Structure to design on (278 residues):
């Protein structure tokens, strides 16, 4: 576990701009993700089969485009968003409403471990022995929206945690995207209501990405993906990459050299960063 103070270069820049940002974050996994381009996907804990499929597929496709997916490790839409992101080339960030010694829900403990093992990141503002409390979950939602460029609502009932995340997103001047749903389904109330109020109706990932042209990334060779997933706009060096992979330093340095030649990354003080072509 790492502790990232608000004055650290690894503290998410977007999070510093919200009302009442956490003074520190407890982090497991790849902290480099905290400053990557990311989008939150949220929704009900009791999704329809349609909602599960949409959450998984949107997360996977966005991940393939290099967008990190943020969600809350809850049952339902959160779970399928994390799973979809992990299946793509990108990764995922889970934001907890408890400390690391009390993962909730317990049946997502394997998902928690898999996210960390597969290059993702889990964060919380709560100390490790802090148990989950009902009032913690609405509060943590400001972090979910805060570290993201925008929020995608897949399904949500009237008065739901997803609605709280959407309200935080509005306060933070973030875009809200909604998957339209069956008007006769309670699970579709929240996205349909936000669409009625002027939120962005989306039926494909392109509807989201057009708001963020800087997220469009070049195709990355499969041979470089393991390293590329660890990189962001914060410098990372070969030793740090080695500690997060099973690659040898010789192999890492060779791949870094090739990635630099191809213009995917550049060498700066402190290590390598992703090249922004925009």
């Amino acid at each position: 576990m790492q502790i990232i103070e608000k004055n650290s270069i690894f503290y998410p820049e977007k999070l510093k701009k919200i009302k009442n940002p956490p003074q520190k974050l407890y982090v497991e996994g790849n902290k480099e993700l905290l400053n990557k381009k990311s989008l939150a996907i949220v929704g009900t804990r009791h999704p329809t089969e349609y909602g599960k499929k949409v959450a998984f597929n949107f997360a996977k496709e966005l991940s393939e485009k290099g967008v990190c997916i943020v969600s809350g490790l809850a049952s339902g839409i959160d779970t399928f968003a994390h799973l979809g992101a992990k299946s793509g080339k990108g990764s995922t960030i889970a934001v907890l409403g408890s400390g690391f010694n009390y993962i909730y829900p317990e049946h997502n403990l394997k998902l928690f471990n898999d996210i960390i093992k597969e290059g993702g990141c889990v964060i919380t503002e709560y100390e490790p022995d802090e148990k989950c409390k009902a009032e913690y979950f609405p509060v943590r939602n400001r972090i979910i929206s805060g570290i993201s460029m925008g929020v995608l609502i897949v399904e949500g009932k009237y008065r739901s945690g997803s609605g709280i995340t959407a309200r935080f997103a509005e306060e933070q001047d973030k875009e809200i995207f909604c998957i339209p749903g069956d008007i006769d389904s309670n699970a579709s109330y929240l996205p349909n209501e936000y669409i009625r109020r002027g939120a962005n109706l989306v039926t494909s990932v392109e509807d989201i990405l057009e708001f963020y042209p800087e997220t469009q990334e070049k195709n990355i060779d499969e041979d470089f993906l393991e390293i590329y997933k660890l990189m962001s706009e914060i410098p990372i060096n070969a030793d740090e990459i080695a500690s997060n992979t099973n690659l040898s330093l010789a192999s890492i340095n060779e791949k870094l050299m090739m990635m630099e030649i191809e213009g995917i990354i550049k060498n700066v003080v402190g290590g390598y960063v992703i090249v922004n072509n925009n």
About this structure: The chain has a mean pLDDT of 90.
